[in-house]
Design a protein that fits this description.
Blueprint: E1 50-51, E2 73-80, E3 84-85, E4 89-92, H1 103-107, E5 110-112, E6 115-119, E7 125-128, H2 130-143, H3 151-164, E8 176-185, E9 197-207, E10 218-222, H4 240-244, H5 247-255, E11 260-265, E12 270-274, E13 277-284, E14 290-294, H6 305-317, E15 321-324, H7 329-337, E16 341-348, E17 352-361, E18 364-367, H8 376-388, E19 397-399
Parallel strand pairs: 1-4, 10-11, 10-17, 14-15
Antiparallel strand pairs: 2-3, 2-4, 2-9, 5-8, 6-7, 6-8, 7-19, 8-9, 11-12, 12-13, 13-14, 13-16, 16-17, 17-18
This protein binds 2-OXO-4-methylpentanoic acid.
Residues 114, 243, 276, 348-350 line the site of 2-OXO-4-methylpentanoic acid.
């Protein structure tokens, strides 16, 4: 049976009210349809979906490494400046055919998203805060000069794609299905200009553990000679260049025996992100208050959905101060020396929550405290997993 969310009134079926349409969602989770002057000729509509099922479904392997095995189908939606959006299409997963001058390849005119669908203990499939991904995708599209689209229509197309490939969602608490919406310019010419054609597509892959490591904590390498993002740049958008540009530093980190880069910014060595993750400090701050802190969204920080969820969750607990504030290596170092640091951890969709065990910084290997059993990160991980798998009722999950 085909279920459909009625997004015309910007509504969703929530887990708690499976039969009710909601006119609005909780703060921060409203749908916005962005428009960009001259670039949007309406939007594609999920009602126009064309579905061509694969004639040769693959044998599903046991859950493998993150992002290596893809499901049977994909969603594609084409756009061009003359005719606007074409009908969305769900078809067998296949290679793309691109013009060699395509500006996604030459100038990185593209973006992507990442979200998960989880199989609950009740065997139902849940998306986690997908509206936040749609909002972020619309922001990235605007910044990339890619055409606007109706976020609710895309979400409904994604829901239909998941529904078709639902058997691929792992029966596991430690694995899920990762959804990778991607939006590329297919402009077939070498001028650096706004695209006249584009392709939005969505692929799905199984997601086991993101970090291919036995270690429970991450080792980081911090050197201010590399910068992930800068004010006025695109660090707050999910664009491929933000990630491709980090590879060189990532391998230098490996040469120091570290797994990821701790990205610093500015003269005062502000702590910004780690690898592809947002970063949190749990400490007794300079004023003697227990605090969970993460850098503010000032343009160089990716507005992570897990980041937002950690802030929302811990603010609701109301047990300690929760802040979005600047954090420097100097403050971290003092806190560590004075035994005020409780824990440092990274967060992201792919990796969920990942404690940091050590940081190589200015020739010193700083050892950070971490107690697996009673850490804040493990408590947050458990609460989020309970929501994602339907054990705790929440407005953050949407049934597929
Ligand atoms: C995610 O956590 O969704 C990410 O974007 C990481 C990705 C680059 C693998």
């Amino acid at each position: 049976m085909i279920k459909r969310f009625n997004f015309q009134v910007h509504s969703f079926i929530s887990q708690q009210h499976p039969r009710l349409w909601r006119i609005s969602c909780s703060e921060g989770e409203k749908l916005y349809t962005t428009t960009m002057a001259g670039s949007c000729t309406g939007s594609f509509k999920a009602a126009d979906l064309v579905i061509q099922l694969s004639s040769s479904p693959k044998i599903k392997p046991d859950v493998v490494d993150f992002g290596t095995v893809f499901t049977d189908h994909m969603l594609t939606v084409e756009w061009n400046a003359n005719e606007g959006w074409q009908a969305p299409l769900i078809r067998a997963f296949r290679n793309l055919s691109l013009h060699p001058a395509c500006s996604a390849l030459h100038y990185g005119v593209q973006l992507f998203e990442g979200l998960m669908v989880y199989r609950g203990d009740d065997n139902r499939l849940r998306l986690f805060r997908p509206i936040l991904n749609m909002n972020r995708m619309a922001n990235s599209a605007e910044r990339a000069c890619l055409p606007a689209f109706d976020q609710s229509e895309l979400l409904e197309c994604i829901r239909r794609l998941i529904d078709i490939d639902q058997d691929w969602v792992p029966h596991s608490d430690s694995a899920s299905l990762y959804i990778r919406p991607t939006f590329i310019s297919t402009e077939p010419s070498l001028g650096v200009k706004k695209p006249t054609s584009a392709l939005l597509y969505v692929i799905l892959c199984q997601a086991g553990s993101y970090f291919n490591t036995e270690m429970r904590v991450l080792s980081l390498w911090a050197d201010p000679k590399y910068t992930r993002a800068w004010k006025g740049g695109t660090g707050d958008c999910k664009m491929g260049g933000n990630y491709g540009g980090t590879l060189f530093a990532q391998y230098e980190a490996a040469s120091y025996g570290c797994q990821q880069v701790l990205w610093l910014y500015g003269e005062d060595h502000q702590i910004t992100e780690a690898g592809t993750m947002n970063i949190f400090l749990h400490w007794i701050n300079d004023d003697g208050d227990e605090e969970l802190a993460t850098p503010p969204l000032d343009g160089i920080i990716l507005p992570g959905i897990t980041r937002q969820s950690i802030l929302d969750l811990t603010k609701k607990w109301d047990e300690f101060k929760v802040s979005e504030r600047y954090l420097t290596m100097g403050q971290l170092y003092s806190a560590l020396k004075q035994q005020r640091l409780k824990e440092m951890f990274g967060s992201g969709t792919a990796c969920s929550i990942c404690p940091v065990g050590s940081i190589v910084y200015q020739g010193t290997n700083l050892q950070l405290p971490y107690q697996e059993k009673h850490s804040l990160s493990s408590r947050i991980t458990t609460e989020l997993a309970d929501i994602q798998h339907g054990r705790s009722p929440s407005d953050w999950t949407y049934l597929v």
